[in-house]
Each structure stands twice: as structure tokens, then as C-alpha cells.
Design brief:
The protein is an alpha+beta fold. The protein has helices at about 15-25, 50-60, 100-110, 150-155, 215-220, 225-230, 275-290, 295-320, 320-335, 335-345, 350-355, 360-370, and strands spanning about 5-10, 30-35, 50, 70, 75-80, 85, 95, 115, 125, 130, 135-140, 140-145, 160-175, 180-185, 190-200, 200-210, 235, 240-250, 255, 255-260. Helix content is about 35%, strand content about 30%. Strands 5, 6, 13, 14, 15, 16, 17 and 18 form an 8-stranded mixed beta sheet that branches. The protein has a 6-stranded mixed beta sheet with strand order 8-2-1-12-20-19. It has a 3-stranded antiparallel beta sheet with strand order 3-7-4. The structure holds flavin-adenine dinucleotide.
């Protein structure tokens, strides 16, 4: 690690901030995380960790214990007329309760020697560091990991947005045994609902839509099978909402400030890629700083965002166009190997070049011609 980054301050102790802190601490920097919240901190999330998220966490030394969460082997899409499913080619995914994941990350960060200050109010960028509750903390580098509404992004003037689309997500947990080894994404007329198994007697149900007023109880009747299953299941958490934002920023670093996680741009929640991106960005930041070239992070960040952005755009296209969605799901149900290729691409087990085979091109042509 370049000597110019001995003291690092990370603002935000969510998955992105803690991952960045762990990655940079492994380079022998002194790392302090400051967060305005106090654990346990919960957040609206579908709580699915894709296989690529699990391996990115593994590279930080974080293994998810076998008795934590619940494994699932793939993804199933359904719209009431058609359904298609595929297995992940790169190992199982895992549903993990958000608070448990957070606890794991905190514990690992502390073991690695990261200092964490919770309940930090009034965090301001100042010359050579941060002011936290009026106290100066010296930092050669400030990492903004303070989520969608990043204050650090605003203060560092890296707030120029190239593209933004907002949706709304609400989630609740139910006490019921998972009925499928797949994460289910159900497409309805007004929303998508996805169901993630998170324990042998619990699932996480999240609804995402463009309508801020559409809560789970209003959305569920659009999904009769799921509605029926959940009718007698006990809700075991209160409904929690959050913004699902597809956002691309002009840049993610300026002088001695870099952004990671949702603060640095994000993809729609339906991709289930938010945490994966956050952890991979932490690795990318470590690589850039080790090379003593913070500007390199911008390039690596852009490359990491590309695949989830494309997949997110495809899914939002299906969300907006009912006819296309029905044809696509029916077509995928007839050609499950195409869905398999797309899922492999989605979780980073395949490349655009490999997936853009004649089979997929034929499928796309047939879809557009129908
Ligand atoms: C409905 C929904 C479902 C989702 N489902 C999935 C899924 O299944 N799988 C997946 O991988 N991703 C999912 N995501 C996305 C995922 O939740 C985010 O991408 C992830 O939380 C980003 O982590 P982060 O650390 O960047 O931000 P956050 O988790 O938002 O953490 C930011 C941290 O910064 C702190 N903070 C904020 N402001 C300040 C401040 N001014 N000063 C100090 N600290 C501050 C906060 O307290 C918080 O701890 C979903 C999102 C939504 C909305």
C-alpha cells in the first residue's frame, strides 16, 4: 500500500463500508469507520446473497457459517402463465437475515483491527480528514460508504448523476418453511415480488414497484398462489421500506475522497446484486490503492457496474412492457437453456461474449418479431 494512505476513514458502516474497511485494513492501513447508526441496524433488503457475493466475501476472509441463513440453488421467474428456473453454475446462494450479515461483518472488521465509531453525528469533510461530532479525525483518504443519500458524495462535489430511476421496495418476514430451493421472482401487473428462503422456518418477501403507496398487503392479491401460501403464515417482522435506485454517477472519486456501495451508484434491487457490488468495489479499491493509483478505482468501478447495469436494464424493460414480458417468460419457459445462460451471466459465471451465442440472438429475434 502506498504510504500516502496510512490513515483511512470510512463514513458508513453498512456492507460497503465494512467490506472496504476490512479490505484496506488488510493492507496495514489504520482504518476507522464512522456511522450515524447504532447496531443492530436493519434495512429493507431481499436478503439474497448470490454465489458471487459469497465468494467475494470469502476473499475478505468472511465465511458464512453453515448454520447461518438458508441455501438456495437458483432462481425461478414466474408470471402466473409461465415459469422457468435455472440453477447457479457457480455454487449455491444463501438467504441471510440482514441483521445477521451485518453482525458478521462487524465482528470480522473488529477482529481485523478496524476501529468503529457508532452514533457519529455531524460528519464533515475537513482539510486532512473528518470532523465527527466536532472532533477531528486525521485521514489521508476518506471512503464515502454512506448509502443512497450520501452526504460525503455531496460534500465532495461528486454528485453529478448521469442516469437515475427510482422504485420502492418493502419487505417482511414470514414464519413458514421454504417451499422451494429457488429464489422466486414473481412478475405481477403492478409489481414484482421476490421470495428468499432465509431459515428452515422463515422466508423474506420483498415487493418492488414504481408506486410508493403499494405495500405488500395490497400487492399480494396480484399473486394468488403466493397470497394463499402466506394467508396462514405468521409475519415475524414489521414491514420495512427502502428506495430501489438505478443510478449512474459521472465519477466516484475526487482528490482524497472515493465512493463505494450505494453511495457510488446502484442497480435496481430486483437484480439482487447490491451487496455483491459493494464487496467487489472494496476489493477494487484495495487493488487501486496498492498500485498507488486511486484513479484506477474509477476504471475498475465502471467495469464492475457494467454487467449488473445491463441486466438491471433488461429486467426493467420487462417490468415496463407487459406484452414483451409475457412473450419473454413464455419463450424462456420453452427454452430454459437460454434462462440458464442469462443467469450464469448475471452471477458472473459467464461473459457477454459467451452468452451472445446464436441461440440467444435467435431467441431475441423471435421475441421482437412475435
Ligand atoms: C427492497 C430492496 C431489496 C434489496 N435486495 C437485495 C438483495 O436481495 N441482495 C443484495 O445484494 N442487495 C439487495 N438490495 C440492495 C442492498 O440492500 C444495498 O445495495 C446495500 O445495502 C448497499 O450497502 P451500502 O453499505 O452501500 O449502504 P447501506 O446499507 O445503506 O449502508 C449505509 C450506512 O451508512 C450509514 N450512514 C448514512 N448516512 C450517514 C452519515 N451522514 N454519516 C454517517 N453514517 C451514515 C448508515 O447508517 C448505514 O449503516 C436491496 C435493496 C432494496 C431497497
Amino acid at each position: 500500500m502506498s504510504d500516502s494512505f496510512r490513515n483511512i476513514c470510512v463514513v458508513g458502516g453498512g456492507p460497503a463500508g465494512l467490506s472496504a474497511a476490512i479490505a484496506l485494513r488488510r493492507e496495514n492501513s489504520y482504518v476507522t469507520v464512522v456511522d450515524c447508526g447504532i447496531p443492530p441496524m436493519d434495512k429493507a433488503c431481499g436478503e439474497g446473497l448470490m454465489p458471487d457475493s459469497i465468494s467475494a466475501l470469502g476473499k475478505l476472509g468472511i465465511e458464512i457459517p453453515a448454520d447461518v441463513g438458508f441455501p438456495f440453488r437458483g432462481v425461478r421467474f414466474a408470471d402466473g402463465r409461465s415459469s422457468v428456473r435455472a440453477d447457479f453454475p457457480n455454487g449455491a446462494a444463501r438467504g441471510v437475515r440482514r441483521t445477521i450479515l451485518h453482525e458478521l461483518l462487524i465482528r470480522h472488521a473488529v477482529t481485523e483491527g478496524v476501529r468503529i465509531i457508532w452514533g457519529a453525528k455531524q460528519v464533515r469533510l475537513v482539510t486532512n480528514g473528518l470532523s465527527v461530532n466536532g472532533r477531528f479525525i486525521n485521514a489521508d483518504l476518506v471512503v464515502g460508504a454512506d448509502g443512497q443519500n450520501s452526504n460525503i458524495r455531496r460534500q465532495a462535489c461528486v454528485n453529478r448523476i448521469l442516469h437515475e430511476r427510482r422504485r420502492y421496495g418493502f419487505r417482511r418476514h414470514y414464519r413458514i418453511a421454504p417451499w422451494s430451493p429457488y429464489m422466486e421472482v414473481q412478475w405481477g401487473p403492478r409489481s414484482q415480488i421476490y421470495v428468499t428462503p432465509i431459515a428452515n422456518d422463515e422466508i423474506c418477501v420483498a415487493v418492488i414497484s414504481r408506486d410508493f403507496n403499494l405495500r405488500l398487503d395490497q400487492a399480494l392479491p396480484d399473486f394468488p398462489d403466493l397470497h394463499e401460501r402466506l394467508r396462514t403464515a405468521e409475519p415475524v417482522s414489521r414491514e420495512l421500506g427502502g428506495l430501489s435506485i438505478s443510478r449512474r454517477l459521472h465519477r466516484v472519486h475526487r482528490q482524497n475522497v472515493v465512493l463505494v456501495g450505494d453511495a457510488s451508484g446502484s442497480v435496481d434491487a430486483i437484480t439482487g446484486q447490491g451487496i455483491c457490488l459493494a464487496v467487489k468495489q472494496a476489493h477494487a479499491l484495495r487493488v487501486a490503492l496498492r498500485a498507488g493509483n486511486i484513479g484506477e478505482y474509477q476504471r475498475l468501478h465502471r467495469a464492475l457496474m457494467k454487467r449488473p447495469q445491463v441486466m438491471g436494464s433488461l429486467m426493467l424493460m420487462l417490468e415496463r412492457n407487459v406484452g414483451l414480458r409475457q412473450r419473454a417468460l413464455a419463450g424462456l419457459a420453452r427454452n430454459p437453456e437460454v434462462f440458464e445462460s442469462l443467469l450464469a451471466l448475471h452471477v458472473g459465471a459467464s461473459s457477454f461474449r459467451r452468452v451472445c451465442s446464436w441461440r440467444l440472438v435467435d431467441f431475441g429475434r423471435a421475441l421482437l418479431a412475435a
